[in-house]
Protein 1
Amino acid sequence: MPLKTKLTELLGIEHPIILAPMGGVSGGALAASVTRAGGFGLIGAGYGDPAWIEHEFAAAGNTPVGIGFITWSLAKQPQLLDLALARKPRTVMLSFGDAEPFARKVKDSGAILICQIQNVKDAKTVARLGADIVVAQGTEAGGHGAGRATFTLVPAVVDAVSPVPVVAAGGIADGRGLAASLMLGAVGALIGTRFSASQESLTHPNLKKRIVESDGDSTTRTKVFDTVRGYTWPHPYDGRAIRNDFLERWNGNDAGLQATMATEGPRYKDAAAQGDTNTMVMFAGENIDLIHDLPPAADIVARISKDAETLLSRPPGLR
């Protein structure tokens, strides 16, 4: 029996699953595939390339999709929000920064405002700003995040912002994760790494292979890859990535890496362009233990939703 929640009602979708707007990964084709499969797809605007954003909206065609911004980066290029709103996205998601300068414009456009947070204080703030959906992201997530774990953060945020619907994020890769999210009081799940390892994602093929071959124990949170790429993320954010030679060499030695950027910067850029997994950033969540294949996005949506439906009707831990 399909899972009907406030999220499915609000977005007019069949399954309570949202594609995380991963920068450089969640392009228009992937977002559209998730929406057509009954979930909802978000394009990841990343650090804000206007031509890239336009291209990915075009790739989504007429399929309803949304877009997600890194909020502190958007503050440096506020015109990108106007560019996106001109494409009439169904939703706009703001993450990692002060949503207040943009919240009213998003809502006035008619788009649904999604705000991702990493603690209860920020959840209360975005609820006051009028967020239609609050995403509670745990530290298990791949890519950028903060310090609280999904399992405890989600119910705390649900209690803090009710009746605003809350979506769980961080470490969710299968039906068990979706079912658990719903039991914690969330109305759905925002999923990243599992979709990164899909046919339609823009993830480098070498990284897709590493996701399938690796496990959660091989990931860690780090600032190394922000430093080498020249991105100054504000406190308290860092990124979860799969360990490799570059990370092991520089992790915890940010000052040393900055001092050698004249040589390390170009070397990193060249290696990353070639898909060298011993050097390039490989953002991925702790949930990679649960990822064993590279299917189409539609198969992922169907598999997760079906398994969650089965689990919620017959919890495996009960006798």
Protein 2
Amino acid sequence: MTSRDHARRRLTERPERGRPTVHAEPAPTLPERLIAAREQKGVDLARAERDTKIRARYLAALERGDYRELPGAVYTKGFLRNYALYLGLEPDDILGQWHRERGEALGGEPVIVVPRPLEAPRQGFTFTPGVVVAALLTVAVLAFAVYLGVQLLRFAKPPTVSVTDPATAVSEVDETTSSYTLRGLSVPGATVTIATPGRDPIRVTAAPDGTWSANVDLRRGKNQFDITAIDPDTGKQAENPANIFITVPFSVVQAPTLTVDQPADGATFENGAIPVQGTTANAASVVVSATYLGPVGGATPTKPSPGPSVSPPAVPQPLSIAVADDGTFGAPFELTTGRWTITVTATSAEGKAVSIPRTVTVSYRGVNLVITVRGGKAWLKAWVDGAVDPRLGSAGKVIRDGKTLTFSGTSSVEVRTGSSGNTYFTLNGTPLGALGKPGIPETWLFAPPDPPTQTQRR
């Protein structure tokens, strides 16, 4: 019989003879209070288990009053306290009722005092051979670990490179200076590379203390040096190269210097894009101009000859080429078929100029057709030596305004355009312009020396 049954029996026993019978509602037991509080909270045991971190089986045992299912009195009190707090009940009241229903007096569990064991007297540290060997091994292992750490850091970290002379990244020297000794720091044994646009790189090796030096040539104007380093042990390159700019001023009265690397004098080209390249100093501008000498294989005309006159090709306008910071310049110069004299002229800011001529021959081989779309887009399809050009494909492509395409064939190039007036042709260096009207689709065959002819190919 549980405590709940005892309480009900006492309250319902028949009174002594002669006294009125009093019927009292029995007080709810602890399990009933727990169940009622949980149901009022609107949660089930699974939810209560998640919220309180107490297993559902223990919560169910508390609500049944079956305390034998619980691990012990200490755990039961802890479970009751936490569960009461979770359900909004007074923990001390719940624990008091638990004690009363178990027939125990309020108070804590008896404390069992365990006597402390007798301590043996502490002995002093004694150096034994085993202790010494263990200490030496520990020191060796720590030293090896430090060595490995240093090596790993070295292999993981790229080398550094810096410049100590000149002290600033941008500097200017006297106009008579023709060389300079660069100095700096890097990792010991590093390969330091000094690159200058338009010149071969210089490589030096850093000393054991990391210092390095290299003598570099200076030209008039701005000299740029890009400096980097490579660690010979790891092969890693410096992430932050050093950039140095040294300027050698020009004399006010000094004329520019000029060197033309291309084209070579007397060179022959199979298309009209003549490469013009070289270097200059003290020049504010470089201009390329051309003079027509005559047809390929003919003599330079000195006076009019009898017979029908042949109009010479149009002479292109002079081409201005920008000069880079290191004094280099380069650009293609378009010429038509024939023999030409190309003149490269460098002019200083003070107006002093120097010129170098080059004689070249332009002799087109096969068919070189340049197509430029102007005034709007145009659909194009092309056949080179009778085969469909793969860039445009068998279905053709729409080419946007301003786009230029080049086709080279052995015997012929045939072009179908959806807007003849927007398609401009240049055949073997000779501008032909548009051969039709805008919006009109036409097909043209180019097979020199015959003139362009219109076909029905689609």
Protein 3
Amino acid sequence: MPAFTPTVHALAPTPGPKLIIHGGAGSSLTGPGAKDAIRKSLHHILDTLYARLAGGMSALEVVIQGCQLLEDDPQFNAGTGAVLQSDGQIRLSAALMDGPAQRFSGVINAQRLKNPIQLAQHLQSQPDRILSETGSQALTRALGLPLYDPLTPQRLQEWVEEQLHGQADGRPALTNLVTATDQHYGTIGVVALDAAGRLAAGTSTGGKGGEYVGRVSDSAMPAGTYANTDAAISCTGIGEDIVDECLAARLVIRVTDGFSLPAAFEKSFAEAAGRGRDLGAIGIDRRGAIAWGRTTEVILAAYHNGEGLGDSLEG
């Protein structure tokens, strides 16, 4: 799908905790009730999380809990409802970054667990903070997390239909993207600013679907998830494009170097669009400004600025 003209939205900083979440980016929502279903899910999760944030919970804990709630929603490509890779297996990646500590942790291609963000949470306190497939499996066992199959009937049907479609076209059946993921929906993310002024960000994904086994997404890299004391960012879209832009880290560094959050988004997304990138991001800065941007048709985001709830969905 070609990239679109960059679009950036920002809310002026106000006192108090701030929260923004996303459920992916891509082409326009289609199908009866699709937009209403996404909005209902995002708003419900946002209401739940903001009550905890306003009640004094730390930004890091809110991000962890928010990622878990989004991972548990089968509408999104993270945790339950994640897409299948080329070999028909589900592999999950997730990352967490604590802004005040400027500490990143994550897991890559973890299997047979419900919430990969839990592994990223545990790794925040470990000397080895990013684990790949084998290490993630060992950690899952060490933590006593129950085995879990995140496969849903819808994702299985999508994968089977794509294999049949590929075979009918004479293409290699196991190297094509799952049809439903051509819209790139699903990667989830949470960014929070708490009452003490602490920032945190988290991102979780099942990948882009149909990819080569061993492919690594941006979500478990600082390219897709990054935070310090000045700003926090979670990205979504085509992982390779996000990595090429090093988008999350670029946005945070620009804010640290003196850009306002909106200006950092405007400049970074103009650059990304000029290079034909297909991506989106959400962010908050230490003053309480909220921003989101995209080069795609839509980004599925919702926010609470302390005064009210809103979202990026039109209509």
Protein 4
Amino acid sequence: MYLVIKRIGDFVFSLIGLLVLSPLLAIVAAAIKIESDGPAVFKQERLGLNGRVFKIYKFRSMCVDAEKGGVYESSNDVRVTRVGRLIRRTSIDELPQLVNILKGDMSIIGPRPTLTYHPWTIAEYSDFQRRRFDVRPGVTGWAQVNGRKTVMWEKRIELDVEYVNHLSFWFDFKIFFITIIKVLTNANNVNIGETVAKASPVDVQHKAEMEEVL
């Protein structure tokens, strides 16, 4: 029942948010276009509910084709534009995801949608880890308020599964409140290094099985 209420709340919140914030969205889009070539909104394939691929929307904060330089950002990454640095610091770059929420791709609160190839592909998630895909991904989540970009992916996914296992209105309310504090303090908002093990869970399991046989 709560999932139904949660979806209705997401729809209403995102609709009102888009209407109220439309002037800000227009100003940010114009600033991005004026500063650098390329689209104002960045689209990227992510894994959503039940592992379904969808396109997430974000304001473009880096130069075009920045991903070719890697998925991790440094504290003074030259790929980040001046406008991009500002909207990242304030998390304004995430606002276009209100459209994703309206469409039903995402929720306000839930596991952050992962890339289709990072930290690994959907086939490489263990059965336990796949539970993170049992709910719609969110703009913010339990992992984001417990370290955000500084936490290793294996731990992030554990926190995501913990969220799925304890999903409730009060849990969502707690995450939303902590998120506000995190945004205001700009806490844990930069990937300071690699946050995923070199091997996927499937690789690790396969290695263990081989060692057992040997």
